[in-house]
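Bumping my old thread because nobody answered last time. Still need a sequence for this structure:
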């Protein structure tokens, strides 16, 4: 019954199972539940966050995968990937573990300082290719289409030159309204940019997400104490990320 229940609903808790069995006349402990499921190869894990996909999104992703299934590795090496991300002060989204003695949980060495509402954050735009990271900038104001095109003009082209991209390199960005606006598409056309057609709701397909994760881990380790330090550390750690 235990294995059958969690197979139907993986979000069932040990407490739910204990109560269900108790109502059925069987008394078990949480440890018994865990051991039983572990013997069946099941263990408790954090649920992964994934994009909410409607049928139209699924079909678009499948179409994208089929179209690029046989692309040679060199083609992907000629892509510049881009995205925006938010980094919060005091590592609100990060988790750390410490070794401590009993009743020492509030000792300063064993805590991570936080403030109400996370202490602020910064928005970053960055890009990279197989040859390494391109430019990273802090977006100071609410981004609109005009600002986005200015960012591309000031940072994407210099990044392509610095990365020594081959002629005909391809640019990737998602389907944010600022990215797909008519004026932005016209800007791409005038610059003779080749833009990778991208399926909606697909951040998990963008390898820059791995780069953002690497940056956030590095920044959290340095524990910036204010927004100015957060921005400086982001730039320093981005520059240190090796091509590999």
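Sorry it took so long. Here it is:
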């Amino acid at each position: 019954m235990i294995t059958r229940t969690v197979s139907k609903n993986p979000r069932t808790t040990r407490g739910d199972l204990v109560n269900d069995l108790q109502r059925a006349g069987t008394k078990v402990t949480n440890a018994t539940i865990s051991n039983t499921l572990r013997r069946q190869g099941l263990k408790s894990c954090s649920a992964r966050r994934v994009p909410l996909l409607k049928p139209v999104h699924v079909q678009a992703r499948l179409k994208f995968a089929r179209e690029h299934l046989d692309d040679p590795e060199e083609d992907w090496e000629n892509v510049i990937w881009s995205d925006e991300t938010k980094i919060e002060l005091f590592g609100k989204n990060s988790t750390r573990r410490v070794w401590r003695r009993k009743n020492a949980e509030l000792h300063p060495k064993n805590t991570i300082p936080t403030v109400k509402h996370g202490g602020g954050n910064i928005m970053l735009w960055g890009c990279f290719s197989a040859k390494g990271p391109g430019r990273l900038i802090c977006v100071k104001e609410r981004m609109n289409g005009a600002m986005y095109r200015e960012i591309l003009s000031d940072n994407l082209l210099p990044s392509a030159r610095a990365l020594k991209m081959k002629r005909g390199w391809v640019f990737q960005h998602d389907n944010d309204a600022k990215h797909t606006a008519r004026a932005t598409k016209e800007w791409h056309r005038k610059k003779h940019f080749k833009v990778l057609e991208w399926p909606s709701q697909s951040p998990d397909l963008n390898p820059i997400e791995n780069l953002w994760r690497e940056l956030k881990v590095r920044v959290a380790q340095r524990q910036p104490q204010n927004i100015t330090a957060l921005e400086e550390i982001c730039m320093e750690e981005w520059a240190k990320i090796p091509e590999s």
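The longest strand covers residues 79-88. Let me know if any region looks off to you.
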